Each structure stands twice: as structure tokens, then as C-alpha cells.
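Worked example 3 (structure in, sequence out).
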């Protein structure tokens, strides 16, 4: 069975929700480039997708908008460009859904605090020795 585009462990988008269109690739290339429809465009409707949960949909709408469009014309083969485009779509969706874990603040160690204070004391001492010895304090 065709599972579609695998984004991460919890999300797979069936191919029926993707709109795939082929068109001629631009640029030079002679007869093959002019006649073959090798450029692939994949569209995914974030707003109307039944595969997404409410949190996933909200996050994707916030980060990518209501529709995600991926275009690929890297290869001479339409089949290969289609596979690359699906991979790029999955990567873009996975990056938008990724959440960094919250930072847990840590206390500085006692040794690092001692080193910091000692370095400040040495620096202050150096500056004091640089001062004019005749000046009144």
C-alpha cells in the first residue's frame, strides 16, 4: 500500500492530498528540454488537509502559510524530479514542525564562580598598578 510522503514518525501525507503538476523545464537543452515535461511542482494544502492534527495545522499555517509549494527541475527525469520534490516537501514540513526542547537554566559551579572572581581581582590589581603612584587616593 502507498503510504504517501513520510514527514516524521507521527505524520504521513497521502498522495491524494498532494497536487502534482509537470511542465517543461526552462533553460537551454535542445529538443529534450523543449518537449519533455520534466519540471515537477508539488502543492500541499495545509489549511484543508485532514491528515494534520490541530496543533500541527496551526504550527504549519503560522510558519509556512496556507499552501506549501515545492518545485524541482534538477534532473532530466520527471520521475526523479518527483521523488526529489516529495523529499523537499517532507523536509520543509518536518523543519516547520520541529520544536527545540526548552532550555533548562543551570547554576554556575562553585569553581567557575571562584575563577571568575579571581580573574576580576587580578585584572583590578593590574589596573591599580598602572595608576600614577603620586596621585592621591
Amino acid at each position: 500500500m502507498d503510504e504517501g510522503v513520510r514527514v516524521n514518525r507521527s505524520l504521513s501525507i497521502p498522495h491524494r492530498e498532494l497536487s502534482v503538476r509537470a511542465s517543461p523545464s526552462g533553460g537551454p537543452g535542445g529538443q529534450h528540454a523543449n518537449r519533455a515535461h520534466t519540471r515537477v511542482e508539488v502543492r500541499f494544502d495545509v489549511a484543508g488537509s485532514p491528515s494534520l492534527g490541530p496543533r500541527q495545522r496551526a504550527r504549519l499555517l503560522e510558519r509556512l502559510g496556507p499552501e506549501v509549494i515545492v518545485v524541482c527541475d534538477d534532473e532530466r527525469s520527471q520521475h526523479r524530479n518527483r521523488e526529489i520534490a516529495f523529499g523537499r516537501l517532507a523536509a520543509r514540513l518536518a523543519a516547520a514542525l520541529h520544536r527545540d526542547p526548552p532550555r533548562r537554566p543551570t547554576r554556575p559551579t562553585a569553581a567557575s564562580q571562584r575563577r571568575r572572581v579571581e580573574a576580576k581581582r587580578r585584572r583590578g590589581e593590574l589596573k591599580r598598578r598602572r595608576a600614577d603612584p603620586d596621585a592621591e587616593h
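Notes: The mean pLDDT is 90. The first strand starts at residue 5 and ends at 8.
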